[in-house]
Amino acid sequence: MVHKHEQVRSELRDLARNELSPGDALPGERQLEKQFGVSRITIRRAVADLVAEGVLVRIHGKGTYVSHGRVRSNLHLASFTEDMKRAGLEPSTRILLAERRQATPRAAEFFGLDDGEETLCVKRLRLANQAPVSVDESWMRPELTDLLLAKDLSQSLYSHLSGTEFAVSTAEQTVEAAAVDPDLAQILDVEAAAPVLLFHRYTFARGEHGPLPLEYSISTYRSDRYQISMSLELDQTGLSGQNEAASA
């Protein structure tokens, strides 16, 4: 037996995929009640399921819209631009900040800076098909400041460093679930405290005496538009995954 909310969910999924386009508003609850002949509770349950699936997205104070979909990224060392193009989306970037600033404690520790020392901070909004996906805050090695400020920072920072002595070689990254920062919620066009994926990344070049710190970054990704995947293999101690990733 198919429950009413399951049938409504299936029909709403077909509506979103076949009749509406990404970014289109879903009809209001009252209209959907009349269209499907069910209660508002049933409509809300079906819509909530589709939001959880990533088919729909709620925007606080505006309504429910057809999602642009989640970008699935295998964990790897690549640029945001490459990730989006691989997913069939058109990437773009808006520069929110690009200037010398007093390094945060984590950035200062990573680069071996004294308290109060400044280095380059680049903060960018990353979009796919003009829809916000992430905000990246990159703290760069001080020696890279002049080099990068002379470049187009809407393009990959790593591509600007390729061919120099600071070409990226490795990265260490952690990913955690978090509630979006209030300031970033407005930029990412999500509700206050919405769930996001928070990436902390330490990027290195090959130095003469070992890995050379290049970048410390914090990336905040909308969890309804981005997901990560891993390939696992069985070794002698159990399952292990290839989980090195970065984008800039």
**Global mean pLDDT:** 83
The termini sit apart by 49 Å
Residues in helices, as a percent range: 25-40%
Number of helices: 8
Q: pLDDT below 50 for ≥5 consecutive residues: which ranges?
A: 71-76, 239-246
Walk across the major sheet and give the strand order.
4-5-6-9-8-7
**Structural class determined from secondary elements:** alpha+beta
Order of helices and strands: HHHEEEHEHEEHHEHEEEEE
Shape: elongated
Strand content: 35-45%
Total count of strands: 12
Describe the fold and architecture.
With 248 residues, the protein is an alpha+beta fold. Helix content is 28%, strand content 38%. The chain contains eight helices and twelve strands. The strands form four sheets. The chain has a six-stranded antiparallel sheet. A two-stranded antiparallel sheet has the order 1-2. A two-stranded parallel ribbon has the order 3-10. β11 and β12 form a beta hairpin. The radius of gyration is 21 Å and the shape is elongated. Mean pLDDT is 83; it is low at 71-76 and 239-246.
List the helices and strands and how they pair.
Layout: H1 4-19, H2 29-36, H3 40-53, E1 56-59, E2 63-66, E3 71-74, H4 80-86, E4 91-102, H5 105-111, E5 118-128, E6 131-140, H6 145-149, H7 157-161, E7 168-179, H8 182-188, E8 195-207, E9 210-222, E10 226-229, E11 232-235, E12 238-241
Parallel strand pairs: 3-10
Antiparallel strand pairs: 1-2, 4-5, 5-6, 6-9, 7-8, 8-9, 11-12
